[in-house]
Amino acid sequence: MQRVTSFFATMALLGLLSGPAAAVTLIKDEEARLPAAAAGLVTRGITRGPGVKMLSPDPAAGPVKSPFNLKVSFEPRGGARIDPASVSVTYLKATPVDLLPRVKAGLSAGGIELAGAEVPPGEHQIRVTVQDSEGRQSSTVLQLNVVK
To answer: Which of 43, 61, 142, 145 is the most buried (most CB within 10 A)?
Structure first.
């Protein structure tokens, strides 16, 4: 009997007995209520650094309902590799909020994939910064418009 119990305990620890993945709270309600960041976000022009592109939700599709699948791709250039340890994900508010611990489970050299990202209604700006093996860095601000 103990052998069976140990087997199930081990399987549960490995996550093999868990059901569908739970949603991830990307932005908390109290964070969404924080004062907005100063206007006039500075972005750079042409860069040889890696590309950062939001694939889902589709930015051209308009407002999205929460929870949604978040998919961001990292596009290395010139044979360089993306350094996942260099990635930062920040919710842009007057006091910026580090979202990296919340997306870490879905982070890879290819990008970020989160199933069931929960975000309160409103307009949200998230800065994603990534660096490649050549030391070139790029930042992109993701615009999320979430409705009830």
So the answer is: 142
